[in-house]
User: Which sequence fits this backbone?
């Protein structure tokens, strides 16, 4: 920790001298000042301390980054290092007294579970505070994946869905923004480096573009994965096979190259294939209730989600279902009725 208590006043480790009566601002237990050549001055609890908010094991990156972030966000309002919040039993790395709403900056350099992020985020919300998760080196080199997005993805004006990374060596904020998922399930986003809060408020200065999807390349990749019995595709292939078809022969009516928010698990294309397969294999009347149930069952099979810790996309499955059914109706495969739909013709599977 960077801040300790001395005679009922807070003192920064940079301004402290060695003495035995420093206390933790949270638990009021004794702490000791440490100084080193590689790590700046900091306080640490004595061994076996019962403090629930102890930040032991903090890396040099974390200690250095907290100071840098306090300076970076200073134009938003008065910043306080390691603000102790007794009401929620938490300590914010940097607390910003912003005029419109206080902001708690969490510089996350160590592993933290979904439960941990959820718990701490909920605590800040109870105080009416906006939690801003900023990620360190450990996370900066990870490939975009659902585990990372689920915990730390947020939505900011002009940046839309994004992740924030802090580089202590350059003293810059890297924003991976306009996060998306292509139809084959791969995550992507644009990257912009900003050097000030003013630049963060302005947003990206370059045009956001999304790469096109090569469906032939997707099928080649699926062919290799199916040959290796890849666990991601196996349950989907099994369900398609039970209807007398093969995944690789999906009808062109089910194909899409659309991008989606990054919540679709194995991707929009597989969801449409599964949903479409079950839809046209159904012998019972296609009532609104039955079609909705098939869409949500397909949603679960492709490991899709409609929310993360910080953001949610309500009714995502219903929106995709409505869009897909409208396409099939326009193409003449379905006809809408007062109670649901009837099948006019079957999509052609390829061999």
Assistant:
């Amino acid at each position: 920790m960077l801040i300790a208590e001395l005679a009922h006043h807070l003192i920064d480790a940079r301004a402290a001298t060695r003495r035995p009566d420093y206390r933790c601002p949270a638990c009021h237990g004794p702490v000791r000042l440490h100084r080193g050549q590689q790590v700046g001055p900091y306080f640490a609890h004595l061994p076996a301390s019962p403090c629930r908010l102890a930040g032991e094991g903090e890396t040099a990156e974390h200690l250095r980054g907290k100071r840098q972030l306090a300076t970076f966000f200073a134009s938003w309002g008065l910043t306080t290092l390691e603000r102790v919040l007794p009401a929620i039993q938490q300590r914010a790395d940097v607390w910003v007294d912003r005029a419109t709403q206080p902001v708690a900056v969490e510089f996350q350099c160590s592993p933290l579970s979904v439960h941990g992020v959820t718990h701490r985020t909920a605590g800040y919300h109870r105080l009416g505070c906006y939690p801003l998760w900023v990620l360190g080196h450990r996370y900066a080199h990870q490939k975009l994946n659902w585990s990372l997005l689920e915990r730390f993805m947020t939505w900011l004006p002009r940046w839309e869905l994004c992740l924030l990374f802090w580089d202590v060596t350059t003293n810059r904020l890297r924003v991976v923004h306009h996060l998306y998922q292509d139809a084959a399930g791969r995550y992507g986003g644009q990257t912009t480096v900003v050097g000030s809060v003013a630049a963060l408020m302005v947003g990206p200065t370059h045009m956001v573009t999304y790469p096109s999807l090569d469906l032939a390349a997707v099928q080649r990749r699926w062919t290799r994965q199916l040959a290796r019995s890849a666990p991601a595709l196996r349950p989907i292939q099994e369900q398609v096979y039970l209807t007398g078809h093969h995944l690789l022969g999906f009808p062109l009516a089910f194909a899409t190259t659309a991008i989606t928010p990054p919540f679709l698990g194995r991707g929009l294309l597989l969801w449409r294939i599964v949903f479409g397969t079950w839809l046209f294999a159904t012998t019972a009347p296609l009532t609104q209730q039955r079609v909705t149930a098939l869409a949500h069952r397909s949603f679960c099979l492709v490991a899709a989600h409609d929310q993360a810790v910080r953001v949610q996309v309500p009714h995502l499955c219903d929106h995709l279902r409505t869009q897909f059914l409208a396409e099939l109706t326009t193409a003449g495969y379905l006809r809408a009725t007062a109670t649901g739909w009837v099948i006019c013709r079957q999509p052609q599977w390829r061999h």
Residues 1-55 form one domain.
